[in-house]
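Quick one before lunch.
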Amino acid sequence: LTGRTILITGGAGFIGSHIADALTTDNDVTVLDDLSSGSRENVPDGATFIEGDVRDDDTLKNAAADADVIFHEAAIVSVQQSIDQPQRCQDVNLTGTLAVLEAARREDARVVFASSAAIYGEPTGVPIDEAEPTAPASPYGIDKCAADQYVRTYHDLYGLDTVALRYFNVYGPGQTGGDYSGVISIFREQALTGDPITVDGDGSQTRDFVHVEDVVRANLLAATTDAVGTAYNIGTGTETSIQTLAETVQSIADTDSPIVHGEPRPGDIDRSCADVTRAREQLGYEPKISLEEGLRTLF
Ligand code: UD1
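Model of the uridine-diphosphate-N-acetylglucosamine complex:
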């Protein structure tokens, strides 16, 4: 991607800032972020930074001016936080996405949307392809599911170029810890400080962990593909249990942290793993970084 005007919402956050890093040299990049979970230092030099909320009309209008492509990464990313604050999650994740789609319609900009595997809820089987029925099991999953449908509908109704990327469990450098963060950044912090590694339930639940650099490449492919108006699973196709993850982190970190088991998380999904055939065939997406390799770079 070169010579384009690009808006990245959530561009000071974990995934958005990696997309910004990949695009800023050759494009005119604007980052819009309210810094609720992202930080100013994540925004690369050379990108224009606007601090603000995607739900604020004037701010969004200004940030989206002349955009060719909008990567919409701004969101509340935690399933647990959505259970604690369902209304706030809907406001940010659903109403915020609708506002971005309207801005894109004004500018005739392409939208690449950060959708989620959480829209599938507990799948009928794994690996999960895009024809899997959606059955979200959390407010977060419901909001991402509705937003994913809006994104497709804006293609069908208004002819907008839109793509939804259904991220599985993204991890990598820059993912910050804290209660509402992803399990890998939580385990990493626990291993580094020597605190117990806290597995929810018996740890038999599985996820498909995909490195943020693979996710960035999927976004770049989605920005130029002709295969728009649809959704793509973005994962690796490898299923890993949380217990195995905890043991792998323990061994790579070479830590004294014990593994402890707590209550299972209410509404937690038991199995998740992507079938990425559609992304492979239509986008040319190929996941390159194995979990073991990706984890090693974090220690
Ligand atoms: C994650 C993402 C979400 C994304 C979705 C796609 C985060 C915070 N959430 O949700 O944005 O859309 O994947 O599938 O990045 N666990 C523990 N101990 C802990 C923390 C978590 O055992 O200390 C377990 C959880 O119970 C769960 C698993 O790890 O079974 C993954 O949890 P989490 O990292 O919060 O991710 P998801 O809920 O899958």
